Structure formats: structure tokens, C-alpha cells
Amino acid sequence: MKALIYTAPHRLEFTETAEPIANAGEIMVKVDSVGICGSDMHAFLGHDDRRPAPLILGHEVAGMTEHGQRVTINPLVTCGGCQFCTSGQDNLCQHRQIISMPPREGGFAERLAMPAANLTSVPDHVPLNKAALTEPLACGWHAVRLGKSALRYDPDKARLLIIGGGAIGVGAALCSRAQGFNDITLVEPNPIRAEYLAKVDGFNILHPDNVYDMADFDLLINGVGFESTRALASASARPGGVILHIGLGSASGGIDVRRLTLQEITFIGTYTYTEEDFNNTAEALFDGRLGNLDWLEERPLAEGQNAFTDIKEGQTAAPKIILKP
Prior knowledge:
Structural class: alpha/beta
Low-confidence stretches: none
CATH class of the largest domain: Alpha Beta
Strand content: 25-35%
Radius of gyration: 19 Å
CATH architecture of the largest domain: Alpha-Beta Complex
Shape: globular
Distance between the termini: 10 Å
CATH topology of the largest domain: Quinone Oxidoreductase, Chain A, domain 1
Helix content: 25-40%
Number of domains: 2
Order of helices and strands: EEEHEEEEEEEHHEHEHEEHEHEHEHE
Mean pLDDT: 95
Largest sheet: 7 strands, mixed
Oligomer: single chain
């Protein structure tokens, strides 16, 4: 089969590779659509030791099974028997695997083998390119759910700041609205992306430099995860506020621990989603509660190298590029 293989930093090759093998309990999926995630970009840039070359990246996948079932894929494979899996915190399973990280190859390929339990049926009225957004949207759904449980105010009275206008940030904004938040501000420094987002779904779009004039947000979601965005979140949270940290841009710096302590600001790290979160996100997507989801751009999988390069250089307006095998 053909696949887009990460071979070295800044290098992807579209080439022939071995067919995947479906083990017991797994089903072969013909990939229709697969999104480029920020973690794929980290690997492409050589910044992710968890994803060593050569490797097939990509974990935001929708396609068709060998039996003709339209599906979207939960890429997180867990053991099912540990204390985390049995208590509804399966995303914290210490034996978890995720496609696009060894030992599981990813979805930038024509076919992919997945456990049957990780496949969610997609209704006929939902295009598969939009169904592939279930995974990144589920990250936002999970984060917002955690934030709501820690928030000291009703969601409809809270001011929400989301840092980052990529798919994680936009997805978190849409999931916030679906979970009862109304006052939502989205931060995006790239003027090309900001202009695009202003037309997406009525969110207030701000440049980071202008956020400090609007400080005192109740709930903040950092969908980027660099030192500068952590500093922005630390400075912009109101006393008693909640910061949710999704982004994995860098490992340290930017958190004002003294301010968090003195103002009793809650800081929550949030990783992926539970199976329940994924299913709830899929249901909301299928029901239309997450909007039209028209903020994506499609490109052939064979042109993946150019797509990654364009994202790196800030030349893409759409928050999400979907590759099509």
C-alpha cells in the first residue's frame, strides 16, 4: 500500500510500504480522511522523541471498514483492565498506546488495522472528512468537561479565553459553546488564520498583545503549550479562575506559580479524552451541535510534505488540513 512516512526531521516520503496486519479483535479500515495534528508537526520538526523515524504519523482518522461500515477512529488503545480503565479514566491507562507512536503505525496510509472497540459508526449524512475531526474535538470536549467541574461559576456567566486558533483551540471553543458557555474569546497571532477564524462561527478573535487589556477570565484553555502562552494564561486568569493546559509545545516555563497560589487559580493538565468523551463528542458532531465544521482544507496524501511545510511556515488559513489517500 501507499503511505506518507516520516523519515527524518522536515522530511516525509510518499511511498510503498508493507500492508498492515489485523490481529485478533482488529478490523481493517480503508482510510478516507486523516487530519494533521500539532503532535504530527512536532514529530515532523524533530521535537518528539516518542515518534522516532521512520514512522507513519496521523491519528485523526475516518474511513470505511472491509465490511462497508463508515467509521471514525478513537486512536487511543487501552488495556481495559487497570484501575484507570475501570474507573472511567481510561485516557490515563499506563499501558495505553496511540496510533502514530510505536508500536502502532498511524493513519497517513491507505489502510489501518484497529481494534473493533475503537471504531465508531458514522451516519450517512456526515461526510467522512468532518468525521475525522472527532478526535481533535474530543480533546476540547474533555478539557471543557474538566474545567466545568472545577469552575466556581455557572458556564453561562463565565468568561472563557482560548489560546490558539488551531484545531485544538477552535474545537475547544465549539465544545465550550455546546457545553453551555457563551462568552468565548479566541486568541490567534497569525493574521492569516485570525482573518479566517473571524468568519467561522462568531467568536471574538484577539491578538495575544490585546488580551492583557481584557484580563480576568474565569476559564482559560491553553491549546498551544509554549512558555509565552502559559505566561499569558497565568496573567489573564481572574482570582479563583481555572486554567486548562492541553498544548504540548514545550515542557517548561511561563507559569506564574506565585500568582496561582495567592489568587487560588486552579491549573489542570488535560490529556486526550476518555472513551465516554470521545463518544459524546461524536454524538454532538453528528447532531450538528458543533457547527458546520467547514474550517478544514483537503489535500491529497501524496502532497503531505508540502502541507506540513505550509503549516510550519504559517501559510495555511484553515485550522485543519485533511489529507486524502
